[in-house]
From TrEMBL, chain A:
InterPro entries given in the database record: Aldolase_TIM, RibuloseP-bd_barrel, Trp_synthase_alpha_AS, Trp_synthase_suA
Description of how the protein assembles with itself and partners: Tetramer of two alpha and two beta chains.
Segments of skewed composition (Acidic residues): 321-333
Source taxonomy: Archaea, Methanobacteriati, Methanobacteriota, Stenosarchaea group, Halobacteria
Pfam (any one): Trp_syntA
Enzyme Commission number, as recorded: 4.2.1.20
Active site: 76, 87
Protein's name in the database: Tryptophan synthase alpha chain
Organism per entry: Natronorubrum sulfidifaciens JCM 14089
Pathway: Amino-acid biosynthesis; L-tryptophan biosynthesis; L-tryptophan from chorismate: step 5/5
Physiological role: The alpha subunit is responsible for the aldol cleavage of indoleglycerol phosphate to indole and glyceraldehyde 3-phosphate.
UniProtKB/TrEMBL annotation, chain B:
Subunit structure: Tetramer of two alpha and two beta chains.
Record domain Tryptophan synthase beta chain-like PALP: where: 64-392
Biased composition (Basic and acidic residues): 1-15
Enzyme class: lyase
Family: Belongs to the TrpB family.
CDD domains: Trp-synth_B (cd06446)
EC number in record: 4.2.1.20
Annotated function: The beta subunit is responsible for the synthesis of L-tryptophan from indole and L-serine.
Transmembrane segments: none
Species, as recorded: Natronorubrum sulfidifaciens JCM 14089
Protein name as catalogued: Tryptophan synthase beta chain
UniProt xrefs under HAMAP family: Trp_synth_beta (MF_00133)
UniProt xrefs under PANTHER family: TRYPTOPHAN SYNTHASE, TRYPTOPHAN SYNTHASE-RELATED
InterPro entries: Trp_synth_b_CS (IPR006653), Trp_synth_beta (IPR006654), Trp_synth_beta/beta-like (IPR023026), TrpB-like_PALP (IPR001926), TrpB-like_PALP_sf (IPR036052)
Length: 333, 421
């Protein structure tokens, strides 16, 4: 396993390039980051999302390992926040289960400390969780009657802990590029990628601005709305294809970071279609959370689902033109 | 606090911020809409393009009943041995200041070419105001309201329905205002190209805090003129209740440059200012008095939150104050010492409610009753000439007040047992 190509570049110390990655510009020999390496070397990539702590951190560990075995090339772990405004009902419910189970940032990082996956890990969370981390020593309202002298919230303790735990990147659904400078600087200092989302409404200068700041990959939101596998999945796929056309992501090895498409992808066939249309990766979340919530034995079911999705992605890659395939067919169970 | 630990924020004093607070912390999908709104705010509200502000003022006069009186409260003045004036926002159409903002935003949406209105509501006051404004301006309207609030505020649900609005129940979480805002944002993220989100207070991403403030600023502009006419000078202090802070900023805005006028924002002290960290529960909504800085619903502001950053459930006898956040401009004005945060508990607010009803023949909203409760507690610090904003009328609260009064031994309450017979 140590020789698995997915391993390459996943050890932060081997990386000469910072997350801000000048090496990227020439599409050269080395990739800007663990994340970019994982996507390019296992192209087309499968990116999976689970909410950490749903239904417990211990279970999450087993599920992440199952996804890793099943062929996930990047794994996003959600650190639950009480007001998940970008999430649809499926992930909201997962977040509620995780919070009810007592999931905290400290527990989350301990989980990441323990995980040894081949796929690099990213944390997905809301900005307030990042701002408050490490601030628990500050006096709270309940400690005194007078307004406490406050220290202003700081993103750095979170980023430092994330780097220490071995996370490779951060995605923050409520942090648009306009507000991202403090976090981006902290991420650059610790060689973490800050992954940006590009929405169907993102156009013109804003699109260019985001593309120029992007590191790791760009999360192409397939359609407006919140996360979640809708009933009408084919429609979602169609929307993603339209997005792809507009963003011209059909040349995966061109300048810039890889593009991965998410929001509504739930089946291998959709993965195939999206990759065939030229995406570098597909992102799947709600469909996996449905398995966590409904399956009697989620770990093997997640592993099988990852295999299905990865096979679909590879099939799409074979059918698409100009796309280099060097990822092996995932092992059969 | 020193300026050196501010690097964490968007550049200070940018258009989008008030000192350390404000900003635009929203999903990428909403950014273009938020920027479109910035543009519309500048053109129509700040520059009166196409006569927008003229039409707004005209409609607020004809439909909304503005200007509202500034009334000298004779018996309160006697009781506190100083001049007490009441700004009567309870007389605005619909029974609260909420229409100032709702009508302004629905009209703005029309100017922007939007086809659909959505809004959140807690107690139902903003929902009813938005439904009225949407009916008046012939716009389709959907209101998100927590399941718990729907059950507690039936009459307001019926009012919204009567005015032709859809009411969408929100079952997530505790089913109150915070969840209703979350769900309205999710709708907006889906329908942003055709829909305007009429946010209900001076909260949310820029430009909402400024936009809502400017529509509400008429309260303080009128009051400032009126007090100079009536008393021949500016007041020593101005008192308003604060939930999200729209009546507060609306009342204060014209007075902010008047350094000699003290501004008091009175929050809901609930049953206690102590926070139950373990259960992420605040038995109050005294955000300005006890909150810590963080990001909620699009803005950096003061919040009721756990040490980890989870937003707490807040609580107040007054549903309209029951929110874990507060407008970013108020957070800033408190930090720089321009606004004094205060709070009174449920009981003081209930007494304030009964006192104004008894002494002045005005039944105030439970929200406004917090300002009146503070007047009772702190009048000696408020100077000789005081303006109190009565943000709304209390008809909507009668059931709650009867229930809560029966549980307590309130000094200002009449004998309510007669109602139970
Ligand atoms: C009469 C009245 N006053 C005050 C408030 C609190 O809102 P804000 O703090 O935005 O003025 C409400 C909210 O529903 C209200 O109905």
């Amino acid at each position: 396993m140590e020789d698995d190509p997915r391993r390459a570049g996943s050890d932060g110390t081997e990386q000469p390039a910072s997350a801000s990655g000048e090496l990227r510009a020439d599409g050269g020999e080395q990739f800007g980051s663990d994340i970019e390496a994982a996507i390019r070397e296992h192209h087309p990539a499968l990116i999976t999302y689970l909410t950490a702590g749903d239904p417990s951190l211990e279970d999450t560990k087993a599920y992440v390992e199952a996804l890793d075995r099943g062929g996930a090339d990047l794994i996003e772990l959600g650190l639950p926040f009480s007001e998940p405004i970008a999430e649809g009902p499926t992930i909201q419910a997962a977040i509620n289960r995780a919070l009810d189970a007592g999931t905290t940032p400290a527990g989350f990082f301990e989980l990441v400390d323990d995980l040894e996956t081949e796929a690099p890990l990213l944390v997905m969370t809301y900005y307030n969780m990042i701002l408050q981390y490490g601030d628990s020593e500050a006096p709270r309202a309940s400690d005194s009657d007078a307004a406490p002298p406050q220290s202003k919230p700081d993103v750095r303790p979170f980023v430092e802990r994330a780097a220490e735990a071995g996370l490779s990147g951060i995605i923050v659904p409520d942090l648009p590029a306009e507000e991202s400078e403090p976090l981006r600087e902290a991420c650059d200092d610790h060689d973490l990628d800050l992954v940006f989302i590009v929405a169907p409404t993102t156009e013109g200068d804003r699109l260019e601005g985001i593309m120029s700041q992007a590191s790791g990959f760009v999360y192409v939101q397939a359609r407006l709305g919140t996360t979640g596998a809708r009933a009408d999945v084919s429609n979602a796929t169609h929307d993603s294809l339209t997005r792809l056309e507009e963003y011209d992501v059909s040349e995966p090895n061109s300048d810039g970071v890889p593009k991965a498409v998410g929001f509504g992808v739930s089946e291998g066939d959709h993965a195939a279609e999206i990759i065939e249309a030229g995406a570098d990766g597909v992102i799947v979340g709600s469909a996996l959370i449905d398995i966590v919530a409904e399956s009697d034995d989620p770990a093997p079911a997640l592993e099988a689902k990852a295999e299905e999705l990865k096979r679909g992605a590879i099939r799409g890659g074979n059918e698409g033109n100009d796309i280099e395939i060097d990822a092996p067919e995932p092992e059969q169970p | 606090m020193s300026t050196s630990d501010h690097d964490n924020y968007r550049e200070r004093d940018s258009e989008a911020t008030f000192g350390d607070y404000g900003g635009q912390y929203v999903p990428e999908a909403l950014m273009p809409a938020v920027q479109e709104l910035e543009d519309a705010y500048e053109r129509y509200v700040l520059n009166n393009e196409d006569g927008f502000m003229d039409e707004f003022r005209e409609r607020m006069a004809d439909f909304g009943g503005r200007p509202t009186p500034l009334q000298r409260a004779e018996r309160l003045s006697e009781r506190y041995d100083r001049e007490i004036y009441l700004k009567r926002e309870d007389l605005v159409h619909g029974g609260a200041h909420k229409l100032n903002n709702a009508l302004g935003q629905v009209l703005l949406a029309k100017y922007m070419g939007k086809e659909r209105i959505i809004a959140e509501t807690g107690a139902g006051q903003h929902g009813t105001a938005t439904a009225m404004a949407a009916a008046h301006l012939d716009m389709p309207c959907e209101i998100y309201m927590g399941r718990t609030d729907i059950n507690r505020q039936r009459p307001n649900v019926y009012r919204m329905r009567m005015n032709g609005a859809e009411v969408n129940p929100v079952t997530a979480g505790s089913g109150t205002l915070k969840e209703a805002i979350n769900e309205t944002m999710r709708d907006w993220a889906t329908t942003v190209e055709t829909t305007h989100y009429v946010i209900g207070s001076v909260v949310g991403p820029h430009p909402f805090p400024k936009l809502v403030r400017d529509f509400q600023a008429v309260i303080g502009q009128e009051a400032r003129e009126q007090i100079r006419e009536r008393a021949g000078r500016l007041p020593d202090s101005v008192v308003a209740c604060a939930g999200g802070g729209s009546n507060t900023m609306g009342t204060f805005h014209a007075f902010v440059p008047d350094d000699a006028v003290d501004l008091y924002a009175v929050e809901a002290g609930g049953s206690s200012l102590e926070i139950d960290e373990e259960n992420a529960l605040a038995p109050n909504s005294a955000t300005l008095s006890t909150g810590t800085d963080g990001v909620l619903h699009g803005a950096m502001t003061k919040l009721l939150q756990s040490a980890d950053g989870q937003i707490m459930e807040s609580h107040s006898v007054s549903a309209g104050l029951d929110y874990a956040g507060v407008g970013p401009e108020l957070s800033h004005l408190v930090d720089i010492g321009r606004v004094t945060p205060a709070s009174v508990d449920d009981e003081a607010a209930l007494n304030g409610f009964h006192r104004l009803s008894n002494l002045e023949g005005i039944i105030p909203a439970l929200e406004s009753s917090h300002a009146l409760g503070y007047l009772e507690e702190a009048h000696e610090e408020l100077g000789d000439l005081v303006v109190v904003n009565v943000s709304g009328r209390g008809d909507k609260d009668l059931e709650t007040v009867l229930e809560e009064t029966e549980k307590r031994d309130l000094e200002a309450a009449p004998d309510v047992e007669v109602f139970g017979q």
